[in-house]
C-alpha cells in the first residue's frame, strides 16, 4: 500500500506529557493504516546547509529546549535508527540532483519525538530524521519532498513537523492583534486543500508571511510534506485551532 504523509504543528515541548485535543488527534492518526516499517521525520528543529539524515543505529533523544519541568528532560524516545535506509535515501536524493549527507552522530529532536510519542508510544519503529534548509527557498523543499515519494510505497511513513504559524515573540508577549496570524493560516490552508503547490512554494508572498514566520524553519516541513504527497494528493485536516492566540495548530494528512 501507499502510506500517507503527515504534517504536524507540534506545539510546545510540554505536549509530550499533556493530553489535549491536538495530542489526542496525533494518538489516533494512524488508526486505519498498517504499522510502517520506518518513519522519516522532517523536523523544523534541525537546520543545515544541505539535506542531512540521521544515520545512527540508536539515535539519542535530544532535549533541545530550556526552562521546562525536570520531568520533561527525563523523557526518552528510544526508537532505533536505520543506517542502511538513511544511506539509501541519501542516494535517492543524489540521483534526483539533490546533494545530501548522512550524519551518524545526530539524534532525534523534540520536533520529531513529541508527536511520535503519541502516535507510536512504544518507540518500536525505526526513525530517521531529515533536516530543513532555511537558506533555501520553498521550491527546493517541494522538490525535496517529491524525491521522497517512492518511500511511501516501500513501507515508510513520511512526517513533517513544524508549525502553521510560528512567531514566538508574539506568543510570549501576548500580542493583541491575532488577525495577521489568522490571515496567513487561512491563506495557507486554502492552498493546501486545493493543491495550489506553486503558491505554497512562493509562500513568502502570502499575507503577513513574515509576521507569521519571522524565520522560515517551522514552515519548511510543511512544504516537504506537500512535495512527498505527490501532484494529485487529497488533503484532510487532522486538527486545527490556536495556542496563545497566534500559534496555529493545523495538522494535515495527505493521501
UniProtKB/TrEMBL annotation:
GO terms, molecular function: ferrous iron binding; oxidoreductase activity, acting on single donors with incorporation of molecular oxygen, incorporation of two atoms of oxygen; zinc ion binding
The protein's required cofactors: Zn(2+)
InterPro entries: Extradiol_dOase_DODA, Xdiol_dOase_suB
Name by which UniProt lists this protein: Extradiol aromatic ring-opening dioxygenase DODA type
Domain of life: Eukaryota
PANTHER family: 4,5-DOPA DIOXYGENASE EXTRADIOL-LIKE PROTEIN (PTHR30096)
Domain Extradiol ring-cleavage dioxygenase class III enzyme subunit B residue range list: 23-232
Keywords (A to Z) from UniProt: Dioxygenase, Metal-binding, Oxidoreductase, Zinc
Protein family (similarity comment): Belongs to the DODA-type extradiol aromatic ring-opening dioxygenase family.
